[in-house]
Amino acid sequence: MRISRFFIDAPLSLGTQDLPEASAHYISRVLRLSTGAVVQLFDGSGQEYRGELVEVGKKHVKVELREQLAGLSESALKIHLGQGLSRGERMDWAIQKATELGATEITPIVSERCEVRLKDERADKRLAHWRQIAISACEQCGRSVIPAIHPPMSLQEWLAVEADLKLVLHPLAEPLTTHQRPATLAFLIGPEGGLNDAEIEQARSAGFQPARFGPRVLRTETAPVVALSVAQQLWGDFQTDV
């Protein structure tokens, strides 16, 4: 039987725990779990806590945490994804899948061809939305650590990121397999309209090396799925011996 996992944005410990109202509502009104149900909570520290629901109300849920467990190990490859800002569900998809594929940090990048511009309150709402997508993805895929979702940043600012290997996707570049194994990786992926030639050169001047996967040009929401999958296969925690 699969045990439901929930992220709690507060330090956890063994014993009785009152859950936040939002989590309580989801457990009681959406999932309709009842007293006695076994759940597993995590707080982003890398540890997990298994216990049993002892009180379930519409807005109040209490759980007795009885067992502390080591969470799922993170990939040895630390990946910072710089994802070109795109519209609605495309950006949501990119963040969700990058989280599932082990990205350590994700930064939405604003470049010339971005069709989305976020400011002030709208930007804050989108950032909270993206962070919730990452949390939900961790709950689903088993990750015990939530990736950092940074506020949108200009391309020029983000290019100062530090990593052992910095790559920018380009259809005319050398294959990804020509690079040596890094411990930290920064991946730059353009928006729906792609990065223009000047931005590619700007990235190269900042130490980014062009890389490609094959002959086809991928959509902005497909590219991070392929990029992170290949990187984890080559240098991370994807296994090939099974």
TrEMBL record:
Any GO CC annotation of this UniProt entry: cytoplasm
Coiled-coil segments: none
Compartments in which it is found: Cytoplasm
Alphabetized UniProt keyword annotations: Cytoplasm, Methyltransferase, rRNA processing, S-adenosyl-L-methionine, Transferase
EC code(s) of this entry: 2.1.1.193
Enzyme class, first EC level, given as a word: transferase
Known role: Specifically methylates the N3 position of the uracil ring of uridine 1498 (m3U1498) in 16S rRNA. Acts on the fully assembled 30S ribosomal subunit.
Species in which this protein is naturally found: Stutzerimonas stutzeri (Pseudomonas stutzeri)
GO molecular function: rRNA (uridine-N3-)-methyltransferase activity
GO-annotated biological processes: rRNA base methylation
Family matches, as CDD domains: RsmE-like
Signal peptide: none
Keyword Membrane carried by entry: no
Family membership noted in the UniProt record: Belongs to the RNA methyltransferase RsmE family.
SUPFAM superfamilies reported for this sequence: alpha/beta knot (SSF75217), PUA domain-like (SSF88697)
Domain Ribosomal RNA small subunit methyltransferase E PUA-like, chain residue ranges per copy: 19-65
Listed name of the protein: Ribosomal RNA small subunit methyltransferase E
Domain Ribosomal RNA small subunit methyltransferase E methyltransferase residues, every copy: 74-232
